[in-house]
Amino acid sequence: MKGQFIVIEGPDGSGTTRHSQMLADNLRKSGTEVILTAEPTEGSIGKQIRSMLHSSSMPPPDAVQLLFCADRAQHVSELIIPALEQGKTIVCDRYALSTIVYGKTLGLDEKWLLAINKAFPTPDLTVVTLPPVEVCIDRVGRRDTQDMFENELFMRRIYEGYERIEEPSTIFVDTSGEKEDVAQHIFEIVSEHLTPISRETIANI
């Protein structure tokens, strides 16, 4: 049986990493075999991207997004497809939608961005974490370090990019509330849209 592919997306400061972790934990409590992963990955290309994001200079936007896609190609072939074929559930912190939203905001052509991501598996469900933009800006401002995408003007434009997403398999969640309440809400949404989980199981999470 094919596994299920869930992606958590959103602007910086929206809680994608925290809620990916909490969703994976809640799914495991329900008896689901889960692989928690993220992009950029911890592979050689992903590490290069992470280092680059905190450097003083960046390659052109198209080169940056091609690097993200190269990292994604390795991620898909080495982890995502094998896990799905084994019937496991994948929770991924960021995926192709980040390339589309960030690439468009950087001025790249949307058709080109869609084309270079066309070969990758489509998530069964994407949860976009989207608290009010001021919450994102405040959270990022309290971090010890920021990457070059984490300035206020760019963050507002990225936020608007996520707001404009219209896909049937995409759900928006306000993550400005108590993290445990938000995590429970996300778990229930995922449970409703993917393989059914009993109400008794949900109640016990």
Structure description:
- The protein has nine helices and five strands.
- It has 205 residues and is of the alpha/beta class.
- The chain has one domain (5-204): Rossmann fold.
- The longest helix has 25 residues, at 61-85.
Number of E-type strands: 5
The assigned CATH architecture is 3-Layer(aba) Sandwich
Helix fraction by DSSP (H/I, runs of at least 4): 40-55%
* Average pLDDT level: 90
Q: Indicate the proportion of strand residues.
A: 5-15%
Major sheet summary line: 5 strands, parallel
Tell me the Rg in angstroms.
17 Å
Element-level helix/strand string = EHEHHEHHEHHEHH
Task: Label the structural class.
Answer: alpha/beta
User: Quick one: CATH superfamily?
Assistant: P-loop containing nucleotide triphosphate hydrolases
**CATH fold-level name:** Rossmann fold
Structural shape: globular
| Low-confidence sequence ranges | 197-202
State the separation between the terminal residues, measured CA to CA: 25 Å
The strand line-up of the biggest sheet is: 2-3-1-4-5
Tell me the number of structural domains.
1
Tally of DSSP helical segments: 9
Given this structure, which CATH class is correct? Alpha Beta
Give a short summary of the structure.
The protein is an alpha/beta fold and 205 residues long. It contains 9 helices and 5 strands.
